[in-house]
Write a sequence for this structure.
């Protein structure tokens, strides 16, 4: 069976950067490391990425088990189906979040056997000592997944961390409400510390936490500076690679390894830029991955884009950082408060910019900024059917882009030396599938859409050339 | 010696071939199926016979449609988006929006001077395609060709709430048993289909002129329902199935003319009019 699965695994995706190609072993180490940690008697917590409290877990020596990551690995190895089917047999609907379904199917199987399911990907997902659920990004599975998992692990306690941020309203100033939010978030994080102290029998070392938060903040700045290098033409790194390099960002925040990884990536990108070495030899089209988690089982689609001369210098997905110095954080030595301000600052970062453009919204404003900063020719999004939170607003964002950005005329200097107005033409492509449910995916249809999109980009370019 | 240009559009349901020089000199439409897809060369032969030309007389041949890959007798493959844009602009130079309703997919394309500027596609769900109409016509025991005329006779289209083809079929049968007049049912079905297509197309910047192509364009009831939903008058080419093949032929013509104009060698594939290899 293992042999058959191995045959089904796809060939390793070609990456543009050395740094991205080093991620696979790193992820494998997360997973096998949790199994090792369990054997060593360390405390393991099921938890979710982009959780705001990575450094708290680090300071308490709690080993995070990133349940979304394990589901993604199952998807990437094309070995999620048996866990999805098992969850379905437990009466969970296939239209729920497939990360959650995969995790629930796996947990149920592991608990039923009392050991890892046969040929579990990379050794399987270790049993947690406690689970940290949270609803911070309006993702309901983040609350409900672990509640459902608890029926298979009734002895494993859950702590629910609520980390809200104000939703965007163009007539509400964040500054007017932020103190209330900070107070709430700080209380939630202090509650988490108390819970962890109870579970581990250890007291929080706040000096150590402060050091990790410092390191986390330096890492945020470094990632931003590193990703910004991708503005170069030709771009030295694309979204396909960013789906790998997000690992140290969202799974290892506040660790020296994450910082060192981005130092290395930064250097690699600068070297490539100096040598004018791009993702593809002949860069023709620069695309924005405008949202949606990727189909983990079809990351080679990025290579297919590359084969047509198309690159993705920027993406909104997994770019979960902004430069710390732009977040208007007050001076405070309390590391819990700093985490809270960083959290709130990140989620409200685009609010003020959106207010300046009638009809805009923070997510749309971010697209516009990236379109301009990275000289974008077209936008690609992925609508994954099982992830409502992430994917529901994507088409709406494209609609807003069409209404408030594209109609603005641009002045172009023609060959005759005269200025003339030109419409912004920014074709978009919506891919439809799922994050790990391969039954939703058709390679032929997907690539047919990509072919048509590339031809459209080319025709738009020809139209512009004819007009100038 | 005249140059002749051919376009072959191998769709999910029909295979279309057009041969052109200054205008269309031959066009053939044949069914596509597992066997017919392999034998698309036969449709090509029929078109050549109709034009009275040997295969060697074709200066350039472009293949399009879902079956365009691995066509051994084509010089180039181009997607149906570009070919529809080119083909429709040939018939309607002022066209800005195309809605193509095929057998198993539907598309919206915005164009500028015959070139696509944006598009949307539905290739995931039978609802919104000709397949939906086939299933419903079969459930009602009528032919797909009858649907359009029947719908136009209805004064009170029935409400069909299900958008899934399978469940809509069940709903239609149930409504029929309730005694809803057939014409009203058919009109309701076409409104449901038009609603689904217009929601997709409205993701684009729809602008006049709006042209409908594909098998769906032959259904007068659907064309009316779609015009009503979109709020635009719509146009239909004389033969709405061949616009993709016409566009393919014209794109071939452009390639040849550009090569001649710039005194460049014409890049052509070694081609042979034989069966398509299907893995």
């Amino acid at each position: 069976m293992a042999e058959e699965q191995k045959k089904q695994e796809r060939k390793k995706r070609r990456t543009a950067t050395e740094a991205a190609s080093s991620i696979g072993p790193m992820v494998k180490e997360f997973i096998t490391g949790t199994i090792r940690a369990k054997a060593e008697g360390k405390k393991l917590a099921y938890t979710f990425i982009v959780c705001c409290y990575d450094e708290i877990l680090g300071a308490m020596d709690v080993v995070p088990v990133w349940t979304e990551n394990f589901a993604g690995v199952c998807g990437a190895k094309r070995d999620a189906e048996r866990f999805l089917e098992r969850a379905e047999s437990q009466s969970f609907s296939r239209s729920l979040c497939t990360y959650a379904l995969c995790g629930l199917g796996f947990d149920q199987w592991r608990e039923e056997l009392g050991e890892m399911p046969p040929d579990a990907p990379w050794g399987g997902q270790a049993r947690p000592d406690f689970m940290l659920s949270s609803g911070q990004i309006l993702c309901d599975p983040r609350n409900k997944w672990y509640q459902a998992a608890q029926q298979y692990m009734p002895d494993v306690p859950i702590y629910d961390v609520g980390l809200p941020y104000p939703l965007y309203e163009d007539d509400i100033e964040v500054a007017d409400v932020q103190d209330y939010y900070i107070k709430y978030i700080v209380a939630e994080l202090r509650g988490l510390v108390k819970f962890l102290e109870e579970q581990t029998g250890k007291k929080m070392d706040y000096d150590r936490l402060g050091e990790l938060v410092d390191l986390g903040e330096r890492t945020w700045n470094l990632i931003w500076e590193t990703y910004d290098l991708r503005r170069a033409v030709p771009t030295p790194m694309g979204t396909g690679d960013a789906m790998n390099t997000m690992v140290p960002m969202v799974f290892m925040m506040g660790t020296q390894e994450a910082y060192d990884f981005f130092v290395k990536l930064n250097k690699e990108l600068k070297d490539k830029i100096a040598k004018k070495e791009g993702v593809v030899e002949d860069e023709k089209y620069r695309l924005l991955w405008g949202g949606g988690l990727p189909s983990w089982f079809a990351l080679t689609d990025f290579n297919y884009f590359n084969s047509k001369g198309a690159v993705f210098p920027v993406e909104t997905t997994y770019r979960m950082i902004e430069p710390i110095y732009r977040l208007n954080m007050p001076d405070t030595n309390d590391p819990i408060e700093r985490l809270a301000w960083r959290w709130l600052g990140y989620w409200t970062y685009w609010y003020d910019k959106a207010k300046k453009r009638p009809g805009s919204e923070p997510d749309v404003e971010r697209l516009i900024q990236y379109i301009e900063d990275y000289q974008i020719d077209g936008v690609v999004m992925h609508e994954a059917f099982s992830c409502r939170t992430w994917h529901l607003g994507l088409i709406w964002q494209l609609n807003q882009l069409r209404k408030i950005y594209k109609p603005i005329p641009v002045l172009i200097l023609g060959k005759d030396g005269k200025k003339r107005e030109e419409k912004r033409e920014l074709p978009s492509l919506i891919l439809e599938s799922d994050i790990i449910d391969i039954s939703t995916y058709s390679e032929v249809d997907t690539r047919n859409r990509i072919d048509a999109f590339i031809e459209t980009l080319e025709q738009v370019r020809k139209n512009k050339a004819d007009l100038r | 010696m005249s140059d002749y240009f051919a376009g072959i559009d191998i769709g999910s349901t029909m295979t279309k071939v057009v041969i052109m020089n200054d205008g269309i000199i031959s066009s053939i439409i044949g069914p596509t199926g597992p066997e017919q897809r392999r034998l698309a060369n036969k449709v090509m032969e029929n078109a050549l016979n109709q034009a009275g030309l040997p295969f060697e007389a074709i200066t350039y041949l472009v293949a399009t449609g879902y079956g365009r890959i691995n066509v051994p007798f084509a010089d180039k493959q181009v997607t149906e988006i570009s070919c529809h844009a080119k083909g429709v602009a040939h018939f309607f130079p002022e066209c800005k929006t195309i809605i193509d309703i095929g057998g198993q997919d539907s598309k919206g394309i915005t164009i500028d001077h015959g070139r696509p500027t944006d598009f949307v596609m539905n290739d995931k769900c039978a609802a919104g395609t000709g397949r939906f109409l086939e299933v419903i016509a079969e459930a009602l025991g009528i032919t797909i060709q009858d649907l359009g005329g029947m719908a136009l006779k209805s004064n009170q289209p029935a409400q069909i709430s299900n958008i899934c083809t399978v469940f809509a079929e069940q709903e239609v049968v149930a409504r029929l048993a309730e005694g809803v007049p057939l014409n009203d049912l058919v009109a309701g079905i076409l409104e449901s289909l038009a609603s689904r297509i217009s929601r997709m197309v409205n993701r684009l910047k729809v602008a006049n002129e709006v042209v409908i192509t594909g098998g769906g364009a032959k259904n007068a009831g659907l064309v009316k329902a779609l015009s009503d939903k979109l709020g635009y008058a719509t146009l239909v080419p004389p033969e709405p199935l061949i616009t993709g093949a016409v566009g393919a032929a014209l794109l071939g013509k452009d390639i040849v003319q550009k090569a001649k104009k710039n005194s460049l060698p014409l890049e052509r594939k070694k081609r042979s009019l034989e069966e398509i290899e299907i893995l």
Residues 233 and 389 of chain A are 33 Å apart (CA to CA). Confidence is low (pLDDT under 50) at residues 1-9 of chain A.
